[in-house]
Amino acid sequence: MAYVVTDACTKDFVCVAECSTAAIAPTADDPKAGTVSQVFINPDECIDCGNCADLCAQNAIFSSDDLPTDKAGFAEKNQAFFQ
């Protein structure tokens, strides 16, 4: 199980700064930050701690087990960012 960022993300980078494993990208100073509409979680690096979801004021981050059906495509979108 990993966490997944959905389209409610406003790219405030709070979760990126607080991720203990650096599984969330891009960072605010990464040139890619200007080319994407949200941040993404690398499912291979996520340790499922849930800190990012707890910090997200927009409620844009879900455990993959709790991802709403209408947001299921965001699991693939998060993974694709890191390929």
Report what the structure shows.
The protein has 83 residues and is of the alpha+beta class. It has a single domain, classed as 2-Layer Sandwich (Alpha-Beta Plaits), CATH 3.30.70.20. It is 23% helix and 12% strand. It is built from three helices and four strands. The chain has helices at 14-18, 51-55, 73-81; strands at 3-5, 24-25, 40-41, 61-63. The strands form two sheets. A two-stranded antiparallel ribbon has the order 1-4. The protein has a two-stranded antiparallel sheet with strand order 2-3. The protein is globular and about 30 Å long. The model has no long low-confidence stretch (mean pLDDT 96).
Helix share bin: 10-25%
Question: First CA to last CA: what distance?
Answer: 18 Å
**Annotation field: number of helices:** 3
Could you list the spans in which at least 5 consecutive residues all have pLDDT below 50? none
CATH fold field value: Alpha-Beta Plaits
- Rg calc: 11 Å
Tell me what the CATH architecture is: 2-Layer Sandwich
Q: What is the succession of H and E elements?
A: EHEEHEH
- Tell me the number of structural domains: 1
Dominant shape: globular
User: Class in CATH?
Assistant: Alpha Beta
Largest sheet, order of strands side by side?
1-4
Average pLDDT figure: 96
As a percent range, the share of strand residues is: 5-15%
Derived from helix and strand composition plus strand pairing, the structural class reads alpha+beta
Total beta strand runs: 4
Characterize the biggest β-sheet.
2 strands, antiparallel
